[in-house]
User: What shape does this take?
Amino acid sequence: MAQNAKHGRMRMAAFCLIAAPFLLAFPLRYWAFHYAGAWFVSEDLEPEHRQAFLGLMHLGLTLAVSVLCFFAASILLWRDRFYPAFSASAAILFGLLAIPAGIFLAIGLKAFLRFG
Assistant: This one.
């Protein structure tokens, strides 16, 4: 019985990680368009170009967070033995995508710490 409870908690945590990017998308968008300063997108750009770059940076940020959450969720699902072949292949795919996503987030964090 304890084994099933452990797997149930891991599966629930994985599905919460899968839902997290969808729940964070709108707060991240609001933050990017209303509170992010010049470190996120330069204020020297014309307003329409700045708006376009803000949209692209928001898209990149959302995709990076999504990939990292999906990678962690696929690892948890694989450990839970939830469709093991699918979970393992998803973990490999999202693991490969997590490398550039982590680099993107690291560059953003470095810019925030330097210019924020």
Residues 2-34 form the longest helix (33 residues).
